[in-house]
Design brief:
Blueprint (H helix, E strand, L loop, with lengths): L6 H12 L3 H5 L2 E2 L7 H8 L6 E11 L2 E10 L6 H8 L3 E4 L2 H8 L16 E5 L8 E4 L5 E5 L1 H8 L2 E3 L11
Parallel strand pairs: 2-6, 3-5, 5-8
Antiparallel strand pairs: 1-7, 2-3, 2-4, 6-7
Amino acid sequence: MTSLDHPAISKISAALREAGMPAAADGIRVLDDEVRTAAAAAAALGVPVGAIANSLVFRATEGDRSFPLLALTSGAHRASTTRLATLAGATSVGRADPSFVREHTGQVIGGVAPVGHPRPITTLVDNALAAYEIVWAAAGHPKAVFPTTFADLVALTGGVAADVADGEENHVS
């Protein structure tokens, strides 16, 4: 049974409090089942899929340098890797493998939170999330989420608000 006492969730709660967002920390919910997709999270929370902030970690490259890129994307569509590369100033962007994700976030795929990483990560926050009063983001574990706002996600991550999709509204599965 996963609880708020789980070390990964406790770490995110502490990071939220340290960032001056105690309401988000107090709002962490541990769900009955893992919610590794936006559709699963939306169903478990009873919210529109677009209100889910998917944490997608990519491996961005610029010349011979590789760096992590976190895209907090609305669950209502897919991010464009071409657009992400342009926004991040990279020559290419591709999905990161689990070891790359864990190395740079300290978290597992399916539960990557916008905060609590060992070092700051270049972050893009999907403008589509601004359409929702409350958005839900992962809280460091595949069963845990926390409520926040678009503006707070941008502030919390030091991220850049951006249009990350090519206008194609695909349901993320």
